[in-house]
Amino acid sequence: MTSSCHTQNSSVPCVLSIAGTDPTGGAGTAADLKSITAAGGYGMAVVTTLVAQNTHGVRDVHVPPTEFLATQLTAVSDDVTLDAVKTGMLGTADIIATVAAWLDQNPPSILVVDPVMIATSGDRLLQPEAEQAMVAFCRRATVVTPNIDELAVLTGQPRATTEDEALDQAGRWSAETGVAVVVKTGHLDGKRVTNTWVGPDGTRIAVPSTRVDTTSTHGTGCSLSSALATRLGRGDTPEAALTWATGWLHEAILHGAALQVGSGHGPVDHAHRSRRLQAAGAANPWLAHDAVPPVLEAPQDLDAPRDPDAQRGRTLTTETPADVVQTVPSVAPAVTPVGPWTAALWEAGAETTAAIGASDFVQALVDGSLSEADFTFYLAQDALYLNRYARALAALAARSASTESQQFWSQASTGAITEEADLHRTWMATRPESARTTASPVTSAYTDFLLATTLGEDRAVGVAAVLPCFWLYAQVGGGIPDVPADHPYAAWLDTYRDPAFVTAVQGALEQVELELAGASPSVRAAAARAYLIACRHELEFFEQATRLEPEAAAPPQRSAEAAPARQSAGESSGDSADRATADLAVAAR
Ligand SMILES: Nc1ncnc2c1ncn2[C@@H]1O[C@H](COP(=O)(O)OP(=O)(O)O)[C@@H](O)[C@H]1O
Ligand SMILES: Cc1ncc(COP(=O)(O)O)c(N)n1
């Protein structure tokens, strides 16, 4: 009698990886466990082979007796109810037969087969005489995830040279076997890398991403298939599961090199997304404004606030004070400060300004690789933001002390509304669903703060609060050397490089300089705090699209009726097996 590894109705699926090892942690069971964890599952691993390998390649493979493999498998299935099984390196025909026999006795509702044959390093991970056994084994899967070379072996076709050829090969094989295929174009040339779910009924769900120029791709196939198994195991549709797995892996590949593991083909950073989201949930960055002294007599009193995390790191190192000062980034402003107070504000906000420029969102926006869905979400929020920002600017106009100031803020307010109308007329007009969006918590928090500050605090505080929206946008726009005509977001980026916008930023800087010079020391300190909080809101606003998770799926079903994957090698029928694949095919439509 088996029992589930956690409480009923938990949305944490139990996922078993059956694969070989990699002692450097980038591929095989290690990569699988990290990927399952990252994708929200409870990971388990049964080892098929011990592989002495590193980021340069495979040195040796040790195959333990298959009797022991069978004992490992039954030790798991006698005790734990599985939501998904993923197989990776099986190595030999004997291993394939042992795993197949166990699957016959313990059919999982989701079986993802990564038909590992040859590693990125070129080393063989499947004996040549076992290839046909692997081909037959793939027929029992819910979905297989071959690379282009493995797809050729699977389908008995020459290696595909284009994506269309690969999709045709997969389509024919899927229709014949009833097993879905994820076609991966990582091994083809091209700026884009697309993962396409090809279903037996002809369904095609393409999930594109951009190619990362990196050598840190060791274990990408293992990681994709494990993440996919986990998301399917928690009840996601094929589209949701593949979209999540592809996006998560893209981020992991993007940040793999920074891990500096090994000197060959390094691993991906499986935990990057978790760490990023964990950092986003921490309150510490919002407390940076605590470093502003209670009164500001002179601009130099506003020393750059220190990142509390960086502070902690420093106390553990033997860095000299000079090193410490250098860790606060200094970013050259695209629009220069107009006096000592705005210069001091710039330095105080430098850390957040640097973080905005370095964020994945801004980087992808600038290089054009940002997905259209993320951009649309961002612009829809921007339209909502601009509407309330315009009201905050109008409040400053109403409270102005001079005709010049009143004119400046009135015009800025009109400009913000005109911009909002432009977004509705252009990008959002062709995407009606974006016009129906309501303000996100991040957008509301920012605009509530701006309205409360401009209406309820001293005027200098309100003026400082609205400044980052001018200044930091110009910073993003000014950091882009040249926007090519075919850049998907050229029109947006050009707005912020427009000389008229730069003039508006200079006008806002002059207002802030004037207000701070004339304010009392305690009001100046409040204004500096408001500026820093608004800088942080800007970062959150940009990054919010990268924190969107798909809707939560239904908890995994773990009943006796759970539909198993295909029953046995070479067979393409069987009621329950058909149900599993049919369910996925229906969900994919
Ligand atoms: N250079 C890259 N840039 C972006 N994504 C990549 C890159 N290399 C691999 N991937 C992602 O990893 C997935 C699996 O990689 P691939 O090399 O096709 O698998 P395998 O490890 O099985 O050979 C790809 O489908 C793609 O999503
Ligand atoms: C145990 C094991 N399984 C799979 C791979 C393939 O990984 P790669 O993505 O480098 O081809 C590997 N190197 N080792």
Automatic annotation (TrEMBL):
It holds the Pfam family TENA_THI-4. GO terms for molecular function: hydroxymethylpyrimidine kinase activity; phosphomethylpyrimidine kinase activity. Its EC number is 2.7.1.49, 2.7.4.7. Pathway: Cofactor biosynthesis; thiamine diphosphate biosynthesis; 4-amino-2-methyl-5-diphosphomethylpyrimidine from 5-amino-1-(5-phospho-D-ribosyl)imidazole: step 3/3. Gene3D superfamilies: 3.40.1190.20, Heme oxygenase-like (1.20.910.10). It catalyses: 4-amino-2-methyl-5-(phosphooxymethyl)pyrimidine + ATP = 4-amino-2-methyl-5-(diphosphooxymethyl)pyrimidine + ADP; 4-amino-5-hydroxymethyl-2-methylpyrimidine + ATP = 4-amino-2-methyl-5-(phosphooxymethyl)pyrimidine + ADP + H(+). Residues 22-269 form the Pyridoxamine kinase/Phosphomethylpyrimidine kinase domain. InterPro entries: Haem_Oase-like_multi-hlx, HMP/HMP-P_kinase_dom, PM/HMP-P_kinase-1, Ribokinase-like, Thiaminase-2/PQQC. The keyword Transferase applies. The keyword Kinase applies. Residues 547-589 are annotated as: Disordered. Residues 361-545 form the Thiaminase-2/PQQC domain. Keywords: Kinase, Thiamine biosynthesis, Transferase. Residues 551-569 have a biased composition (Low complexity). It is an enzyme of class 2 (transferase). NCBIfam families: HMP-P_kinase (TIGR00097), PRK14713.1 (NF011301). Catalyzes the phosphorylation of hydroxymethylpyrimidine phosphate (HMP-P) to HMP-PP, and of HMP to HMP-P. This is Bifunctional hydroxymethylpyrimidine kinase/phosphomethylpyrimidine kinase.
